[in-house]
Amino acid sequence: MLDVREELTPMMAQYTDLCEAHDDALVLFQVGDFYEAFCQAAETVARVCEVTLTKREDSTGRYPMAGIPIDNAATYVERLLDSGYRVALADQVQPAEEASGLVDRAVTQLITPGTLVDDAYLEGSAANYLAALVREGEGARATATYGLALVDVSTGECLVTSGDRTTVAEELERLSPAELLTGPELAVEGGSENADEAFVAEAMHTDYDPSAFELGVARERVEAYTRPDAVLGNDAEVRATGAVLAYAEYTQGGDHLDYVSRITRFDARESMRLDATALRSLELFESRSRSGHTLMETLDSTACALGRRRLESWLRRPTVDRAEAESRLDAVEALTGAGVVRETLHEGLREVYDLERLVGRVSRGRANARDLRSLATTLAVVPGLREALSDLEHDSPRLADLTERLDDCGDVRSLVEEAIVPDPPQEVTEGGVVREGFDEELDAIRATEREGREWVSQLEARERERTGIDSLEVGYTQVHGYYIEVTNPNLERVPEDYTRRQTLKNSERFYTPELKRREDEIISASERADSLEYELFCEVRTSVAAEGERLQALADVLAELDVLVAFATIAVDRDYVRPTFGASAIRIEAGRHPVVERTTEFVPNGIDFSTGAIALITGPNMSGKSTYMRQVALTCVMAQAGSFVPASAAHLRVVDRVFTRVGASDDIAGGQSTFMREMAELTDILHAATDDSLVLLDEVGRGTATTDGLAIARATTEFIHDEVGASTLFATHYHELTDLEADYDGVFTLHFTADRDEEGVTFLHRVAEGPSSSSYGVEVARLAGVPDRVVQRARDLVEAAEHEADSGAVDRDEAGANRSSRPAATNGAAASTAEGTPHDPVTGDAHTGPAEKTFSESHEGRDGRAKSAPLPDSDSSRGPRDDQNHAVRGVLDDIRSLDVARTTPMDALALLHELQRRLDDANQET
After folding, report:
1. Secondary element (H or E) of residue 89
2. Tens of pLDDT along 715-759?
3. I want to staple 132 with a disulfide (CB 3.0 to 4.6 A). Which of 8, 181, 687, 818 is the partner?
4. How far out from the chain centre does Cα 670 lie?
């Protein structure tokens, strides 16, 4: 089209101009009852929306064309958004009857994933953020300051923070914006010299005018909303906030967003930090299985959309301010003891509409009459809520404060109720919106219209009587207006004052001078009434918009009250208890997993460990180790969010972060195997955890060879104990790790119990002190449905390995002194003799190089002790191969060094296989 632009028809030239002005979006161009797209845009619309691709042909050529119906546009636009496109809706902004040629069209909405405002596109009540990210400072990225600003265009909420790269990257993951703008000094995707690997957000990445990120331009933009120096902390925050507001304005037509009045700066250190890995592992908002549930779903007993968003916010960012957590818990406790008040509040809150989004639509001039009535309905609830809360003001300072802040905005409510009919139509331009008695002029015009319609309604009876034509009818069409219809057999009886208006097949239509005069009066009055009604409605909407800050403040109170009532309701219904906070230990009695207990019979388990303690948890697969660890973490999250917890008692400490290394995953596209991903997550934990953190580790080291994996697991445990000091739950099948209990203060062992009989193993899902004797891997395989032949063969191999190991072991007590901290040799890794000398796993020859030291041997811990014995050096050079007898001696030495009591069945199988292979190799050599 650009090649023949001068020759295009006026309509196609108009389309081309709009496309050029919005070259970052798919322009959907209104043509009658359809939105049309042309050329490449048409091909995209046809493919994504699965509609027919047709052709438009004119003197300049043939162009692909695809269209979607306007009355169902939301469905198709949503598909385009999900496929990564921005959509510009170009509507007819001029009535067709007023146009003297081409109808004026303009882009009325630029719809992008981060700037959705219509309920048809938004996902329920969840926040929908647009984010802007900048880097400030000329130094290295490691020392630069990063600024992050987010705005929910549908509600007006605006959040701003800054920090180092890691901190801001975590906040970006945690708040999960739908769309991300980046300053010109940053790029979140590869292929740029500015690419920053720390910011790999799932959001749509949008390139926006670089000048919007300039400090002076951004500061001027922010000053239109608030005083930057009073709210924002540094230049990075000013730049990010200015850019995100500029883009939000651009997508909403370029106007100032009056309802964005809550620019809030937050510090990541003010809340429990939960990175993306922790959010996924703990299943706070997304389940890892299709049929699973989340903590959000489990705790969502809220009554309105405001409360649901606040609940998500509190769970996503639990407070680390003990006083704030206690204040919420005080309110919840007061509500748990007042059942009638709690039920009254819940029923009242169910009548509350999404006030934040209503205010947003009102301020943007997009609210209809039904929106205003919904707002009035919400305001009508407030007096009842305040009265119910008055009974609890003395039981909780927080509830007293909420009661004081419950402004019913009576003047706003009265204005809406006086101006708008109780059940208004959807359209505000077609009349029937404004109540009678609100405006005298409108009432007079309506009276004229009403009198005219009454005269017309009586005309049919009068004319039948006057003409004697019983079949005479009076009717109306939009094209021809009012008419008197007479059938052909009665045409001879038509009076002389009838003037023919329309001829039909079997009848004629007429009008009289008086009917024409009345028609003009009615139509004129109707048009004037509709026009005046719309003006009055807009005046009312503007008056309501002027009270936006009051209404948003009320929305904030209603949101918090809804969450507190929901927490109290759940606490009563599910037998939750109030947690207490202390300075050190985490003690939970008869704790339960809040999600799992909702779907299955649950065995409660407790925990008691002090700051810096490490619990090594062993036991069978499927016994509940991962569930147990997660329930401890979720208890801390719930308590710091302000909720009671599922336990018989809970004494907790405030946790600054929860780290999880739970479950297997990979990133093949990013070049990371399962084990590499595991190590990357472990690296993050060991670098970022503090002595106020809670760490969950599940099977660390199982993704590689047994010796290497055990070494990593042991070194990790030592490092956390000596250097980090974080409270840690470590589930493992490396039974050798349980030796650390004797060597380190604060390290203790737990295990999940099981009963074994002739028919198999029964998992009791109960925690007990001490290590487990077995992982029951073969029994788990049987329960999973592995063929009986495989299961039986595996049992035979385990029994053979145990028997051979028992018959070859000598003086285990004497050798154990050097073996307690040394892994068993499997999978070709280095083994050690009873004397502690590393030997080659194939030849049995002694290594000549020194054994590698553990972290604790090389560095003194925080208590000055170094207690670990050396780990075997699996990378040392191998000794020369001798004869067959030498190989046999090496195998026997390895068997003697094996600690059967601490070797898992799977490790034993692997070792047996390796020893057999070595003997076979030696036989072949000789």
Report:
1. strand 87-92
2. 999 999 999 999 999 998 888 888 898 889 889 999 888 777 666
3. 181
4. 23
| DSSP conformation class of 468 | -
Dmax over Cα atoms in the chain, in whole Å?
A: 134
Q: What is the rounded CA–CA span in Å between residue 818 and residue 830?
A: 15
Q: Which of 190, 145, 137 is nearest to 167 (CA)?
A: 145
Assigned token pair, 619: 């036991």
What does DSSP say about strands 580-582 and 61-69: parallel, antiparallel, or unpaired?
unpaired
Is the CB of residue 562 less than 8 Å from the CB of residue 310? yes
Distance of CA 492 to the CA centre of its chain: 77
CB contact at 8 A, 187 and 134: no
Closest CA to 590 of 579, 599, 600, 603: 603
Count CB atoms within 10 A of the CB of residue 620: 25
For residue 41, the one-letter residue type is A
Q: Are strands 262-265 and 157-163 parallel, antiparallel or unpaired?
A: parallel
Amino acid at 324: E
CA–CA separation, 38 and 67 (whole Å):
9
Compare 543 and 901 and report the one with higher pLDDT. 543
Tell me how far apart the alpha carbons of residues 136 and 243 are, in angstroms, rounded to a whole number.
Answer: 14
Burial class (CB in 10 A: 0-12, 13-18, 19+), 467: middle
Q: Where do the H-state alpha helices sit in 257-338?
A: 276-281, 295-299, 305-316, 322-336
Look-up of token digits 């994933």: 113
Residue the block writes with tokens 């295990």: 751
**Helix and strand element counts for the chain (H, E):** 29, 28
Strand partners, 204: 179
Q: What is the amino acid identity at position 618?
A: T
Of 131, 358, 366, 118, nearest in space to 248 by CA: 131
Determine contact, residues 298/594, Cβ cutoff 8 Å. Answer: yes
**How far, in Å, are 268, 274, 625, 916 from residue 693 at the CA level?**
15, 11, 20, 46
Order across the sheet with 605-609: list the strands: 580-582, 649-653, 586-591, 605-609
| Region at 79 (left for phi over 0; alpha for psi -120 to 50; beta for the rest) | alpha
Nearest CA among 119, 556, 592, 571 for reference residue 301: 571
Quote the radius of gyration of the chain (alpha carbons, Å).
37
Q: pLDDT at residue 870 above 80?
A: no
Q: How far apart are CA 160 and CA 691, in angstroms?
A: 28
Global pTM reads 0.80
Q: Report yes or no: 111 and 87 within 8 Å, Cβ to Cβ.
A: yes
Q: How far apart are CA 355 and CA 376, in angstroms?
A: 10
Report the alpha-carbon distance of residue 332 to residue 641 in Å, rounded.
11
Task: Say how far apart CA 350 and CA 381 lie, in whole Å.
Answer: 9
State pLDDT tens for residues 195-251: 555 565 678 888 899 999 999 999 999 999 998 888 898 999 999 999 999 999 999
Going from the C-alpha of 523 to that of each of 6, 440, 516, the distances in angstroms are: 43, 19, 10
Helix (H) or strand (E) holding 101: none
Burial class (CB in 10 A: 0-12, 13-18, 19+), 187: middle
Q: Under the phi-then-psi rule, with left for phi > 0, alpha for psi from -120 to 50, and beta for the rest, what region is 552?
A: alpha
Distance in angstroms (rounded) separating the CA atoms of residues 890 and 841: 8
Helix spans in 183-234 (H): 215-223, 228-231
Q: Please tell me the least confidently modeled range out of 468-472, 527-531, 678-682, 845-849.
A: 845-849
